[in-house]
Structure formats: C-alpha cells, structure tokens
Amino acid sequence: MSLRDQRVRDLPVLADFEVVRSIGDGNHGQFFLARPPARLGIADEYVAVKVFAGQVTEDAYRRGARELRAFAAVDSPYLATVYDAVLDDRFFYAMEYFPLGSLASPERPLERDRLLTVLEHAALAIDALHEAGLAHGDVKPANVMITETGGKVSDLGLARVFAAGAALTGMAPETSVEFVDPELLLGEPPSRATDIWGLGATAHRVLAGVGLYGDLPENQPLLAIRTVLKADGPTLSERLSPSEADVVRRCLAPLGERYETAQAVAQAIAGLRA
Description:
Elements (H helix, E strand, L loop, with lengths): L2 H8 L7 E9 L2 E7 L11 E6 L5 H16 L8 E6 L3 E6 L15 H20 L12 E3 L4 E3 L5 H4 L11 H4 L4 H4 L6 H17 L12 H10 L11 H10 L10 H12 L1
Antiparallel strand pairs: 1-2, 2-3, 3-5, 4-5, 6-7
Helix pairs in contact: 3-7, 3-10, 7-9, 9-10
C-alpha cells in the first residue's frame, strides 16, 4: 500500500462529507478539510469540519447544535459561517474553510497593521455575539481566522456544553490556559468580561510574540493552570508599544476597570492602527 493510500485509509468517514485531509487539532477534537455534500447547497468547494473526540450523548448533541444555531444566527460579517452539525459515531460540525490560517498559525507572516485589522474584526465579532446574548468562551489566536480583508472568529467553546458540570481544569489544554481569564479557572462561567480578557491575551500573544505567563509546562494542563493561578498576575511584554500595552492592560484589568464591551476593544485597536 502506498503512503498516499494509507493516508486516505486513515481519514475518518464523516456522513456524506468527502474528507480530503487533516488540517490540525483543536480543543477536544480534530479539524479536517472536506468537500461538502450537495444537500447543503453551498458554493464553497471546501469546508472545515471539526470532529470532537469521544462519545457525545444525544442530549449533549442537542445542546451543542442549539449553541451552533444561535452562533450561526448572529448577523456579523466577522463570524465564521456554520453550515451543518451531525451526530454520527461522533459529533462534528462543518464551517467555512480559511486557507490563510489563523492568528496561531498564519499561512504567511502578517504585518502589524494587518494583525491589528484581524484583531479589530475579532473584537467586533465577539461584540456581536455578546449583543445576541452569547459568550464565545474560547477566545484565542487559534480561533481567530484570517481572511483576505481581515479576520473572522470561529469555534465556540463547546467543550463546556458537552461536559456540563465538569470543571474547566478538566477541559482546558495547556495551549489554551494562557488565554483563559483566571476567573474562569476558579469556576466562573464564560461572560462578556471573560471574552474581553481573552481578546487582550490574544492581542498580547500576536503583537508581542510571547505569552502573559512565560513558557507554560507542555502536555501538562493541570500544571499549566496551577502556574497561572499561582502567578502574581499576567506580565506584559516590553515588546509591546506603550499604546499597545495600554489596550492589553485594560482588557486584563479587574472588573470595573476593564473595557465594558468588545466594541470598545475594537475601537481601541482601530486607534492603534490609525
């Protein structure tokens, strides 16, 4: 058997989607590039399909599908389009494919002004979710996708839906801990404020190129969480300009001092670009 045949054989069967190849891992699942079935009636040649690891009950599927429908109903040009959600052997959903990658793994390096545009669009997307009564719950560079004209936000934090009642410490991989408001780690639910914290942490990572807590332990999420909770607080990098640091600092500030809306964050980021 050729290597190509082996790769094809290793691809999952996902209902009536034609899976082409793996395009990476996400929280609690994998992403695949696929050709959509004709029943969806979409013009896109490809879609991105996220397949969640482990078994999902029908009740959890209904909760997840309900969240995705609510996400898809929000009217914003800066939110990824969700096309379908399926419970087969596993739960998966299909959304638009972004060949330019994400802020975590861009297809090519981005200049500062382009980064700021993508971040501004991400903040506008989060604001649209908030105005619709939703919290994203997983704001981080990997969920901020790059488009030809800016950016879009994807991938709701559905792990909390599929594991209702589970502690976040059991759901947050070490690659995400840096972007999680410590209040979430202490048991608070996702909210406007925690998403704004995530926007600040995301902006810090992509503009400074380093994390708020230095190098966190790899492959040890509980140790990474412990490191964050024991820290005196996030430390801003000197690589940020004073104006960039001001925006990030206010995103991470205590409640009452933090930006009240993601719209305000978007305006502050636009000011950096100007």
